[in-house]
Amino acid sequence: METLKNFNFTEYNFILSKSLEIIFGIVFLFIGLWIIKKFIKGLDRLMTKRNIDPSLIPFLKSLLSIILQISLIISVLSMIGVEMTSFIAILGAAGLAVGLALKDTLQNFAAGVMILFFKPYRVGDWIEFEGLSGRVKEIQIFNTILTTIENKRVIIPNGVLQSNSITNFSAEDKRRIEWIFSIAYGDDYDLAKNLLLKWIKEDSRILEDEDPRIVLSELADSSVNIRVWVWVKKANFQPVKFDFNEKVYKEFPQNGLSIPFPQMDLHVKEMPRS
Questions:
Q1: Spelled out in words, what is the top-level CATH class assigned to the domain 120-168?
Q2: Burial bucket for residue 271 (CB in 10 Å: 0-12, 13-18, 19+)
Q3: pTM for this one?
Q4: Which of 60, 127, 185, 245 is deepest in the core (most CB within 10 A)?
């Protein structure tokens, strides 16, 4: 009886109550994380089914998952009796310190958001940046991953891409090809022009709704330069360009047209002997 008299039921009830709150909080946390995981998977399938831009899906999943998890943690802490005002103040101070320490990382994050929403380029586009070109393989939160023509994997911070000029070769359906073909002085320019027009009309990959242009662009030191412009679908840009280079190299000499190389005429004058 003496033991029962000395036992503090108030403290016991408080400990029991807190223990139950912590247990329920932990259970709620694990159930919430499981629900969030299932929700994100379902959202992934829904976005894929609705043909959402593939570059946006990973970002939206990550962002929503982080927001839901932070909200869940705050709810659990509130359930177990943590004073949220102090906690939010501490969280804000910690966030400020982390923000200052990770300034460049946050800049890349903000740039990644801008890239994903304003879409200066998409996954699969061929882009050029400061002399480096490649196909966009993946747009992540902090980085953009390119695959070069040599199959090299290049990782570029989004902040660098966002603050500099980018050339997107895949943005338009059509591209213009420009050649400069040279013939020697004395060769028949009209013959060269007619041959080029004939080959252009024979190639079905060259768009007919855009008239080709062929002009005598320059009387250079060693050659007569002919400039040619045609329009093609972007997928045919390189095949048409390379095929025409080969055709001109093979066919011009067969039609009496020579492809000159740089040369210099040297005039030697004999000085009278004294």
A1: mainly beta
A2: exposed
A3: 0.58
A4: 127
